[in-house]
Every structure is written in C-alpha cells, then in structure tokens.
What does this fold into?
Amino acid sequence: MVPADEFDRAEAILLALEGAGRVTVNDLAERFGVSRVTVRKDLDAFERRGLLRRIRGGAVGIENSDEGAWSMRVRHSVEAKQAIARAVAPLVRHGDVIAMDASTTCYFLARELVDLRNLVVITNGLRSATLFMEQSTAMVVLPGGVLRRSAESMVGPLGDLLKGRGRISKGFFGLVGLSPELGLMEVSIDEAQTKSFMASACDEVYGLFDSSKAGRFAVHPFASAADVHALVTDEGIPAEVVAAWARLDVPVQTVAVPARVASGTGAAS
It folds into this structure.
C-alpha cells in the first residue's frame, strides 16, 4: 500500500523530488489515491516553505543552500537513524561531556541518552535541547546565535563560548555529504561553521549518517578526515566508501536496519 496520510505523503513527495527532480499532480494523485486538489494544496504548502517550486501541472526541486526542513528530514530513513542511534548510545556514559549537532540523527541519539545521570550536553539543536530539558537531568548548554528556523538550530561563531572551558569527550555530528578528501560536509555555511567550532573542541568526532548520504553533493567541510574518530552508518553504504575511509584509518561501523512492517494503511515507521 502507498502512504496516504498527510505526513507520509509529505515524505514521499520530497523523496520523489530528491530522486527525480520533479513531480506531477496527476501522478501523485494516482499514487496516493487522493484528489488533485489535495495534491495541489500539499505542493503549495511546500512552496511556501521554500522546499520546491511550483510549475504547471506539478513541481520541481529547488537547488539551494538549505538541507530541508527538520520536520521533513526527521521522517526520512527513520529505521536507519534509530538503529544508528542505538549502536552509538553505549559510547556515552554517566557524567560524560558530549556535543551534538542539530541533525535528526542526533535527535534520535538524544532519545537514547535521556536516562544517563550527570550528563553535560552542548548542542545547537533546539529539538534535542528541549528533549533533554523535558526528559532528563542533563545540563544542557545551548549556544547563542541566530535561529535557523528550517533546521531548528542555533548558528554562529562559538569559539569564544567553548574556548578555555575544557575539552568535550565526544562529539556526534550528522552530515549532508562526506569524502576522504574534504571530510564531513554541510550545505549551509552557517551550519558548517557552527559544527566546525563544536568539532574542534571534541577529543573524538563521530559522523552519524544514513547510507543515502554517501555520494551526495555538499559544499562546506566542517571536520577533516584526520579529525574523524569513526563513522557510523547503515549496511546500505557502498563497500568502496568503507574502503576509502579505511585507507585513512577511519573505521566505518555499519548497523543492520530492521525491515519495515507492512500494515493496512501503509508501511509502519
């Protein structure tokens, strides 16, 4: 069964745009079993949020410097992100000082860490900060800066905030793209700058990403390959990518992703 509810339609439309570059109203209406009016409303709402550009009969993707709205990204590759988070969580212990960015993968990691005691979390992610505030006893350090609404993050120069306050034992970072030559990368220069400041204060830097990010285009590096302690992704990562990072002595841990379970209203998430 194809996804038919509003949120699953949203995810499927954005994934279709990412893959094909354009979608049509007629095709989407037939795929989801909804009216063309409903599809047009979906596309119009996405256009207002800057996620696509409407054209006659459909929509096309937008080539810009934004990785997409957090509320959409958090619904993409959920099973992989949850599996990655579960695999990484044992690295963090009671009393650790850690850094986490505003990525959706790190949000899933935050959900695995809320029961730890005496945790200190430095994060620019509003969702993760709120989660720790509401469900844990962790001390949360939320750097100031400029609010990026689409990413639900705070960005800005963090050098003065982190300088002289001790080292951070581990830093966990999502990414848009990666390469052995340039390291871990983002599409937003503001996000990359903020992550760079955070990563530079960490003793160990971990890149967390679902395998769809391998080979994806990105622009701004925030951590060089030499600064990466390990990468954690799912088993869909191409073998040549693992080998390339292994040549740089950066281990790539792969985790199994549970299969989706079909139901009467579509795939479960």
